[in-house]
């Protein structure tokens, strides 16, 4: 299985998707460098929880039309959004997030489960002062218990769906595995309206994108690791386990575990320093181009489990596969056809990366959901 690594020429950091290993450190004359390993836990997505409760169709009806465009609005020309209210980050896509890790904040440490998201740059968790149901259902940060807490004084607002997530900016010690990051910027949410986060298995989000994407004008966690010389290499890497158990894999800060993958490693230049954005040459089914015919840009987003794209291209792709629209806004295929469905190939830097039907289809009860919406 090939390893996909994303970097930029002479870059300060890279991202790759791979497997992980154990905590490792090396000494130099000046610093103790470490590879930090965070176990990941896999859980049912909010989408699955809403479907089981019969609430998914209503959620899609209320929220989906804007979710993709507003989370990724910097990718589009500004004139597209003249009729829309400004928004830098949209959190609907977290309803499909299925992997989270543990981090601690403060002295003594308070532990939280967070989505490790390459599609955003900010780090936030619920505040003890937040009284919404979504906050009360999760771990809440108690700043008055931390001796190292620093109140930032600034406010932030993250737009999602029919409301806003609002809060205040702060600084404190953040601990990931055995590494402590001093004076790390993070947000304390004070208002989480709506039901989007009520059933979530995670408390907050830890963004891993570039600083230019930060709504809070904050230094992201990984950038602070590099500034404080806490990692051996300017690299972080994921292993995502798809077996369906709680062992979801690991995230490695500062290194690569070469024992947990095989095949060649492919390096793809980052085309813009906001998201982890790379050039995509085309999308093919059975050798025929069905999308991105003249080339396009793609974002590698660990906070979104579905593959998204322009509506017309996705509809064309669904038609090629024989998928039909479902009542909740998803496309459906008959599970009995799974073995006869074609593979889908994504051409990146003249290399075709192919997904089989088992990899791009999500089986749900007696139906299968195609992974491209």
UniProtKB/TrEMBL annotation:
Keywords: Aspartyl protease, Disulfide bond, Hydrolase, Protease. It comes from the Eukaryota. The active site is at residues 117, 301. Disulfide bonds join 130-135, 292-296. The keyword Hydrolase applies. Belongs to the peptidase A1 family. This is Peptidase A1 domain-containing protein. It comes from Pseudonaja textilis (Eastern brown snake).
């Amino acid at each position: 299985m090939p390893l996909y690594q994303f970097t930029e020429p002479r870059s300060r950091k890279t991202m790759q998707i791979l497997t992980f290993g154990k905590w490792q450190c090396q000494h130099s004359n000046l610093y103790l460098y470490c590879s930090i390993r965070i176990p990941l836990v896999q859980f049912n997505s909010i989408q699955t929880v809403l479907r089981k409760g019969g609430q998914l169709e209503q959620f899609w009806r209320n929220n989906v039309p804007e979710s993709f465009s507003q989370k990724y609005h910097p990718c589009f020309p500004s004139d597209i959004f003249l009729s829309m209210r400004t928004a830098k980050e949209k959190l609907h896509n977290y309803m499909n997030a299925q992997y989270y890790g543990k981090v601690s904040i403060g002295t003594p440490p308070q532990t939280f489960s967070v989505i490790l998201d390459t599609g955003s740059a900010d780090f936030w968790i619920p505040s003890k002062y937040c009284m919404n149901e979504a906050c009360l259902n999760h771990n809440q940060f108690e700043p008055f218990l931390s001796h190292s807490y620093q109140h930032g004084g600034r406010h932030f607002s993250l737009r999602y769906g029919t409301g806003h997530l609002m809060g205040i900016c702060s600084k404190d010690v953040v601990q990931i595995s055995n590494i402590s990051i001093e004076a790390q910027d993070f947000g304390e949410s004070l208002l989480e309206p709506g039901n989007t986060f009520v059933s979530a298995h995670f408390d907050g989000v830890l963004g891993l994108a570039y600083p230019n994407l930060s709504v809070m004008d904050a230094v992201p966690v990984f950038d602070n690791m590099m500034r404080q010389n806490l990692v051996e290499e300017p690299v972080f890497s994921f292993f995502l386990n798809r077996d369906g158990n709680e062992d979801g894999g690991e995230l490695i800060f500062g290194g690569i575990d070469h024992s947990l993958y095989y095949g060649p490693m492919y390096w793809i230049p980052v085309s813009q320093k906001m998201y982890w954005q790379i050039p995509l040459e085309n999308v093919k089914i059975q050798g025929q181009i069905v999308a991105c015919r003249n080339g396009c840009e793609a974002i590698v987003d660990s906070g979104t489990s579905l593959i998204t794209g322009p509506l017309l291209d996705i509809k064309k792709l669904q038609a090629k596969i024989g998928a039909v629209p479902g009542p909740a806004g998803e496309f459906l295929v008959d599970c009995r056809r799974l073995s006869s469905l074609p593979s889908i190939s994504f051409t990146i830097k003249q290399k075709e990366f192919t997904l089989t039907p088992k990899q791009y289809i999500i089986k749900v009860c007696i139906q299968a959901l195609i992974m491209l919406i």
